[in-house]
Amino acid sequence: VARLEAVVRLNCFGFYTNSEQMCYRQNYQLLTGTALCPVAALLNHSCTPNVSRFSVGDVCFFRTCKFIPAGGELLISYIASDLISEPKYVRSVALERDFQCNCPACAGGHSRE
Hints:
single chain, two-stranded antiparallel ribbon, 6 strands
């Protein structure tokens, strides 16, 4: 049971209605949920992601936000987008994972400390 709980906690994605959509309550409902998406769970974390994720209703979209060369790794942020520009310590606390982030922002001169 503990292993299953860990798999779900570390591989699920939250779905939330964007605040912009809530301005149009006649078209959108407040929606929150969690889904286990096997393909999306293969994406690794970076504090300098090249893929953005957003939800519209119960559909989750992934979109590149930077040029990615052929064969380049697709990276998302496991932390909230408003924390990406915070200092390294804040980002590492928010990450709550079983690994240390070694992305360029955390490992190099872009630590924003």
